[in-house]
Design goal:
The complex is a heterotrimer. By secondary structure, chain A is an alpha/beta fold. Chain A contains nine helices and ten strands. Chain A has a domain of 132 residues: Rossmann fold (3-Layer(aba) Sandwich), CATH 3.40.50.300. Chain B contains 15 helices and two strands. A two-stranded antiparallel ribbon of chain B has the order 1-2. Chain B is globular. Chain B starts with a helix and ends with a helix. Chain C has a single domain, classed as ABC transporter involved in vitamin B12 uptake, BtuC (Orthogonal Bundle). In chain C, strands 1-2 form a two-stranded antiparallel sheet. In chain C, a hairpin with a 2-residue loop joins strand 1 and strand 2. The termini of chain C are far apart. Classes of the chains: A alpha/beta, B mainly alpha, C mainly alpha. Chains A and B meet through helix 2 and helix 3 of A and helix 8 and helix 9 of B.
Chain lengths: 241, 324, 289
């Protein structure tokens, strides 16, 4: 089995703050991994490091056998890695269709082909009704769908989803979980950063737990959930707050 | 607007612009028309970088001046026709845009803007000092060859009108083509959100560089035209900051990131300016005061400019019709 | 030779104090409100004209006129924030850049219409006086200007560190959302920031009058210096702006001394471009956004 993503000894410091320290984990192809941990654990930083928005101080990131460290985000995307942002970043002035076309253009040079691919992807995430709506006018859940559609349009092999469930009501969470399951069924390798344990349990077969930038646990959902370190990390931080 | 109807409207507009000068008798009015087309051209060139990609340069006078000086130097020192000089000036500006862009794009937002201002000012200062190479602060006139089309000099203003009209139509055609192409999407995307653009595979630094080169090339051509039109060049004129301002201003008022925004903006501003001049004479400060009031009004109430406002109106009407 | 260099350094340092007042205002506004005030130079100009009229109509000494120019410009700052800046907060770069830019053009050209381009000067008892230290020549007016500038800078620094409002401003500068959650009213903080920044600009104007002419375009020179100092000193960093301004004053002065009378501007621009090329985040590091 090919390693879709191999993160080794990743480290990043901002001034005095060690955001990520010696983090290593592996994701197998077509697996869904969840990256969890209390606030400030370094999860989004890890995503930024993988995508090339920050350069790690140490460590390596290999996707499908190719080293990603040192590449700019657009090159990482070309390698087949796509992400959504925790706070949605739509191209506000463009319509939903135009947003997704921008992603589709990575592999489709011609406008018509890009439009076709975009329409397909938009239908897949269930946004067809809003195709011609300006992105800035969308509801939260629709903006999440848009983020996903735009990332999918780049035809990734590995998808990084950053807290897609945040701010959704229970019905919407179910829809989102369903969508991610559909993606996994299509063969995509997925890494999700998530706070909502319900979604994590439903989607991930493998979980990595971060706290204060370090990996404190890893394993199947049932193991991790009962791990005393993990419990302490969550409860400990809420007790201190 | 549906495609067929749009083609008719565009065709009619072009036809109008072609025959308009024939109906105009006074040289003064023709001069105004030429200035309108020239600044619409410069604004359209600026709009590619500043309107679509939202990289607000206030240093485009650098390229205007480079174009003007390149063609003039080639003409006076080497006897080469300004038609070729115009293209050479464009290339010179393109090449200059590489180091200037490399420096300035290291900053974002308003600090990018300031850096572009600084770069343009440096260029002006350099040319003010280049006495031996390029006539220094006094500048030079270009020899009047009478009617010499091959050297871009004409008797009467009419031919100049058609030259600048051609330049404008070329710029508009390029803009229209880009806006519908992959590059167009990429420009707007990076203008909206650079990080998100990178995340979908857009090579943002390269796109910025490419559009900057194109914008510089076109702006330089305007510089050449202007020298040929007024038969004079000096650093204060060729690298004047007001060129940078007007290039941005017409696009903002008319609507950044739209095809016709710069043209509409120029029409509004230049006619206002001409009217002001005839009413109030040339008193110092009046014209720019009015410009700045217009600019502030646009920014406070209609930041998307005239074209943006029209688009909103159309959208509202469409929604109302859809419901009704 | 050493004497010539020392003299140039002194000259540069003294004018650098004025640059500091202007650039601190710009960096304060940028840090707290996240807006670049292109019109900062025009407020210096307003300060200069206020002082000019107080001096010619009432015989008021420029130093005394600080008591007028600073409060007046503080109020103008609050008004600008309330009526103009507030409306473009949260929009993207374009409205923000061009609003203050348009404001700058507006003020400059109104001044041009009202006062014409003529130079106005104020002559005081000490305008021509100078101290002599060894072989060095230190003009009194400039020394006073420098002294007051440093005093005001120190007061501002103390204000930012020690008072609640000052701390609120620093908090808003670092993280607007968190500051708002903690109950800090952003509009009030922004208004104070604008007020202080413009008051400093006005002070610069008053301090300049004894040895510098007032004319509509005068602000452009100072604002340019201010911007370069702000970038060099790292965006939003008040101390950085101060230090950078002093350095730039010295650099400009050395340039004028050793390269040529009108090379001051080129030296400054080259400094800016060099900073961009080598260390875009300025001397104090930090972010370039």
């Amino acid at each position: 089995m090919v390693q879709a993503l191999m993160v080794s000894n990743l480290a990043k410091q901002f001034g005095g703050l060690r955001a990520v320290q010696d983090v290593s984990f592996t994701v197998r192809e077509n697996e869904t991994l969840a990256l969890i941990g209390p606030n400030g654990a370094g999860k989004t930083t890890a995503f930024n490091l993988i995508m090339g928005f920050y350069r790690p101080d140490a460590g390596s990131v290999r996707a499908f056998g190719r080293e990603l460290v040192g590449l700019r985000p657009h090159d990482v995307c070309r390698m087949g890695v796509a992400r959504t942002f925790q706070v949605a970043k739509p191209f506000g002035g463009m319509t939903v269709l135009e947003n997704v076309m921008t992603g589709a253009f990575l592999h489709e040079r011609r406008c018509e082909a890009a439009r076709e691919k975009a329409r397909e992807t938009i239908a897949f995430v269930g946004l067809s009704a809003r195709e011609n709506t300006a992105a800035r006018d969308l509801t939260t859940i629709d903006q999440r769908r848009l983020e996903m559609a735009r990332a999918l349009a780049t035809q990734p092999r590995l998808l990084l989803l950053d807290e897609v469930m945040a701010g959704l009501n229970p019905a919407e969470v179910d829809q989102a979980v369903g969508l991610v399951k559909k993606l996994a069924a299509r063969g995509l390798t997925i890494v999700i950063v998530e706070h909502l344990m319900r979604a994590v349990m439903a989607l991930a077969r493998h979980i990595v737990v971060l706290d204060h930038g370090q990996k404190i646990a890893e394993g199947a959902p049932t193991e991790v959930v009962n791990n005393p370190e993990v419990i302490r990390a969550y409860l400990g931080s809420s007790a201190a707050a | 607007m549906r495609i067929g109807r749009r083609r008719v409207v565009v065709g009619a507009l072009i036809a109008l612009m072609l025959v308009l000068p024939l109906a105009v008798k006074s040289a003064f009015a023709l001069d105004i028309l030429i200035r309108i087309l020239l600044f619409a051209f410069i604004g359209t060139a600026w709009n590619l970088l500043g309107g679509y990609a939202k990289q607000f340069s206030l240093g485009h006078s650098a390229f205007f001046g480079l174009g003007a000086y390149t063609s003039t130097l080639m003409q006076i020192d080497l006897g080469i026709s300004p038609w070729i000089g115009m293209l050479a000036g464009g290339v010179a500006a393109m090449l200059a845009s590489l180091p200037i862009g490399w420096l300035c794009f290291r900053l974002r937002g308003p600090y990018f803007t300031i850096a572009t201002i600084a770069a343009a000012q440096v260029l002006m200062l350099i040319f003010l000092k280049l006495r031996d190479f390029a006539w220094g602060a006094e500048g030079t006139t270009i020899p009047n060859l009478g009617d010499a089309p091959l050297m871009m000099q004409f008797d009467g203003k009419l031919p100049y009108y058609y030259v600048v009209l051609l330049l404008l139509l070329v710029a508009l055609a390029i803009t229209a083509w880009i806006a519908r192409s992959r590059l167009g999407f990429y420009l707007v995307a990076l203008g909206e959100d650079q990080d998100a653009a990178e995340a979908v595979g857009i090579d943002v630094p390269r796109v910025k560089r490419d559009i900057y080169m194109l914008s510089a090339f076109l702006t330089a051509m305007a510089g050449t035209f202007y020298v040929q039109y007024i038969y004079f060049i000096d650093p204060q004129t060729a690298f004047n900051f007001s060129i940078s301002i007007e290039a941005a201003l017409v696009s903002i008022v008319g609507g950044v990131g739209t095809l016709l925004g710069p043209l509409i903006g120029t029409l509004l501003l230049e006619t206002t300016s001409a009217l002001l001049q005839s009413w109030l004479g040339n008193q110092a400060g009046v014209q720019v005061t009015v410009y700045s009031v217009i600019l502030m009004a646009v920014i406070l109430w209609r930041p998307t400019g005239i074209m943006g406002y029209l688009a909103e109106v159309r959208e509202r009407r469409r929604l109302r019709q859809g419901i009704a | 030779m050493l004497e010539i260099v020392a003299q140039a350094v002194i000259n540069g340092l003294l004018i650098g104090g004025i640059y500091a007042l202007v650039s601190i205002g710009v960096t304060l506004i940028f840090g707290v409100v996240k807006i670049v005030n292109f019109a900062q130079g025009e407020f210096v100009m307003i300060g200069m004209y206020i002082t000019f009229f107080l001096a010619t109509q009432f015989g008021m000494d420029p130093l005394l006129s600080l008591l007028v120019s600073m409060p007046v410009l503080f109020v103008i700052g609050v008004l600008v924030q309330h009526f103009l800046i507030r409306r473009v907060l949260g929009l993207n770069d374009l409205p923000q850049i061009f609003l203050t830019f348009a404001l700058s053009l507006l003020i400059l050209n109104i001044a041009l219409m009202l006062f014409s381009a003529n130079y106005r000067t104020v002559h005081t008892a000490y305008s021509d006086e100078a101290f002599h230290f060894g072989g060095l020549y230190v003009p009194v007016a400039k020394l006073i200007a420098f002294g007051v500038a440093m005093l005001l800078s120190a007061l501002l620094w103390a204000f930012l560190r020690a008072t609640d409002l000052g701390k609120a401003m620093r908090a808003a500068s670092q993280n607007r959302d968190v500051a708002q959650l903690m109950g800090i009213n952003p509009n009030r903080v922004f208004a104070v920031a604008l007020g202080i920044a413009l008051a400093l600009a006005g002070a610069a104007g008053s301090l300049l009058m004894p040895f510098y002419p007032a004319y509509p375009m005068v602000g452009q020179v100072f604002v340019l210096m201010a911007f370069v100092a702000v970038v060099l000193g790292t965006l939003g960093n008040v101390v950085g702006a101060l230090v950078a301004s002093l350095l730039m004053g010295i650099a400009e002065s050395l340039g004028i001394q050793f390269i040529g009378a009108d090379s001051g501007l080129i030296v400054v621009f080259l400094l800016l471009l060099a900073t961009l090329a080598l260390r875009p985040s300025g001397l104090a590091g930090g972010h370039t956004r």
